[in-house]
Amino acid sequence: MTPQDAITISQEAVKITLLLAGPVLLVGMAVGLFISLFQAVTQIQEMTLTFVPKIVAVMLTVLFLSSWMITKMVDYTHNLIASLPMLIR
Predict the structure, then answer these.
(1) Torsion of CA 24, 79, 75, 73, to 10 degrees
(2) Which helix (H) or strand (E) segment is 30 a member of?
(3) CB under 8 A, 24+ apart: contacts of 16-19
(4) Mean pLDDT of residues grouped by 10 in the chain (89 residues)?
């Protein structure tokens, strides 16, 4: 395995991680922004008001996107395992 092969594998791992985490993080950020605007307008400063909707939104996003996420992870893992014989030459 050459250093270039290791860099390529690392780059692909980072790409797949960002691809899978991106939608979940964006939903959490959007819900957090909406809740913070709601708190600023109503001046309600309840701590559970910030966490519970974010947790529910993230859980629903993961539930909705789980089949796509699993497919992407399996494809990446399959490609990585299939390329192992060429990497250890």
Answers:
(1) -30
(2) helix 3-42
(3) 16/72, 16/73, 16/76, 19/72
(4) 87 96 96 91 83 94 96 95 85
